[in-house]
Specification:
mainly beta; Rieske Iron-sulfur Protein; 4-stranded antiparallel sheet; about 0% helix
């Protein structure tokens, strides 16, 4: 897997996001209150709303359009909603956020 250095962890505010241009559209990087970082396509599976503009709580993001809840770890919509935002491998090393852009992890 080819890892790309995207930014410093501090460049993403806690409970905030940052957008990265990916080969298939924008990717949203999310930072939780516990400094965990997750990466999902920046499109809600419902109507394509920008997940990067949603509210982050725990390990979920709420789509700003219709309040669908999306699990950051898997990209899966929370029941009763059904759908998936594709997730991307991301990690934090030495305070830097690294993203693997070529690999798209499908939902389970």
């Amino acid at each position: 897997m080819n890892w790309m250095d995207i930014c410093a962890l501090e460049d993403i505010t806690p409970l905030g996001s940052r957008i990265v241009a990916g080969p298939r559209g924008d990717i949203a990087l999310f930072r939780t209150a516990a400094d965990e970082v997750f990466a999902l396509d920046d499109r809600c599976p419902h109507k394509g709303g920008p997940l990067s503009q949603g509210l982050i709580y725990g390990k979920r993001v709420a789509c700003p359009l219709h309040n669908w809840q999306i699990e950051l770890e898997s990209g899966e919509a929370v029941a009763p909603d059904v759908g998936c935002a594709h997730r991307h491998p991301v990690r934090v090393e030495n305070g830097r956020v690294l993203l693997a852009l070529r690999h798209v992890a499908a939902c389970a």
